[in-house]
Amino acid sequence: MWWETGVRARAEAGLFAVFAELPRLVAQAVAISWRADRLRTSVVAAATIGAGAMAAGGLLATQRVLVELFAGGPTGEKVLAALPALAVLAAVTGVRAGLGIATGYAVNGLTPRVDREVERGLFEVTTAVRLDAFDADAFADDMERATRGTDSAISLVQSSMNLIAGLVGVLAVAVAVVVIHPLLLLALLVATLPNAWAALRAGHLRYGTYIAGSVRRRRLWILHRLMAERASAPELRSYGLRRFLLDQYDRVMDTETGIQLALARRVTTTTAVGALVGGLATAVVYVLLGLLLIDGQIPLAAAATCVIAVQAAQRSLSTVTFQVDRVYTEGQHFSDYTGFMARAAAYLPDPADTPRPAPGPLREVAVQGVTLHYPDRDTPAVDDVTLIVRAGQTVAFVGENGSGKTTLAAMIATLRTPTHGTVEWNGRPVTEWDLAQVRTRIAVVTQEYHKWPFTAATNIAVGDVEREARQDRIESAAARAAAHEMIKDLPYGYETLLDRTFAKGQDLSGGQWQRITAARGFLRDADLLIMDEPSSALDPRAEDALFQAIRDRHGRATTILITHRLANVRHADRIFVLHEGALVESGTHDELIAADGRYADLFALQAAGYDAAPAVRPPVPAQPDRAAP
What we know:
62% of the residues lie in helices and 9% in strands. The protein has 19 helices and 10 strands. The chain has helices at residues 5-12, 15-36, 38-70, 75-126, 137-180, 183-212, 214-228, 233-238, 242-295, 300-344, 405-412, 435-440, 456-461, 471-480, 484-488, 510-524, 540-552, 589-595, 598-609, and strands at residues 364-372, 382-390, 394-398, 420-425, 428-429, 442-445, 528-532, 558-562, 574-579, 582-587. The strands form 2 sheets. The protein has a 6-stranded mixed beta sheet with strand order 6-7-8-3-9-10, with helices on both faces. Strand 7, helix 17 and strand 8 (558-562) form a beta-alpha-beta unit. Helix 2 packs across helix 5, helix 3 (38-70) packs antiparallel against helix 4 and helix 4 runs antiparallel to helix 5 (137-180). The longest helix is centred in the middle third of the chain and has 54 residues, at 242-295.
């Protein structure tokens, strides 16, 4: 799955491929960190290099202490002679500890800034791209991967810094060892590399097993949801699914446990082999040191320092090997983020060469030969439609499902760009106006409304252009949508949180949400109000109140109404009938009924459903009396 791309890449990559990719990934992490906070990045860099220098200085000071202690003469004199080196060693140790604290503070302060830098960049793009971007399957998949990449950015930065720190530590030890005696560098490599190889090999085994278990993890994830979430709880109990689901869980976990135990054996074997080879190599190093001592080629102090250096190098190398895997894995996920950001640029609105004027109040919306193709369809969703809506009119778009009503309304609302043709506002194409200003004069109540996880008041207030609607305006809009009394009956009234995910949150029915959505549209009191199936879930009383509020706009503001309930559009100034994307009829209700076309057929079908004439049943024939026994 997409969230496993980094792990899969690591499982399939050889060690040479991993090391070849590391410089680019580390450079990328440093660049992110630098953009997020230059000061803290500089502190981390300086402290890391300083800690490495202190490590090298510490080893050299240790060697000097050992030289003095192993020299001939009285013990007191040897200790006095070693005191300057001991003081240097103590100072180096203290400075190194201080640098570690400084690094910790800097990294802790850097982490949230990196998170904000990367995540804010993603949201700046996802909220700005054109709506048609979301029609492309590849875009949706890319965006999902990119969200995982934002989390990986922090891990990539932290892992890269830890990797650099580990490498600096290894390099510092190597430099110190070379200064003491060049032959000791070879001893250091022989003693440390086997364990490093074993650690990288063990990581490779873990990643490979993780990828092989992808399907099992998805099944476990689904079972976790089915057994522990509110949505599935009623049916789980009513159908007695508890034993069934637990059995499914046990089957998957039995397999997973066996695989994990096999992995543990393989990893243990690998690390044991590495430790064994490393132990033998270390023993060889110690033998070599002994021979060099006997031969007089190195002093005892240098040999002792080499032992300390081997231990320090092993610790640093252990850090390096662990962070190599982390950097490579998280880097693949972050590449999904950077790739998405580059590709998403193609969906961003074209910047205006010169400032565009703000539109005046609506006088007329003209749709001129508009066609729109969705990328996954052979036939157009809207096909060469031309119509005019004038200020103060109430017009309706009607037709069967898939006839193009919602798509046409979206183009009028400037949410979609026609493939061909133009939408004009007051005689000029909407693209020649400041689109943000055009949208402030339009309110859209969508068929697929979103349940915003805010309070009832905020859910309505988001319809306000300035997001600063007063309570009296919110309540007035709610009353027009037949929502005021319903909201007042909630536990906390307008301050009730409409999301059960949070404490004291509440659920609403589909009809109640539809009232909230309608109130949001009414609050803006826009020049043009587009209402797409605003009453599909309303009870008759609420529906009547809603359409009365829509009729109250007539002559004062413009309304485009999309609905399948044709009785509610009888009073529209003009009804546009669409079929398979084309405009096939238009006129008033009476004109369309007289034309006896598609609208008349649809209206007659609905009217038949409201025929109040009682059905006449044939009389039941009388049954003859049964003879008494």
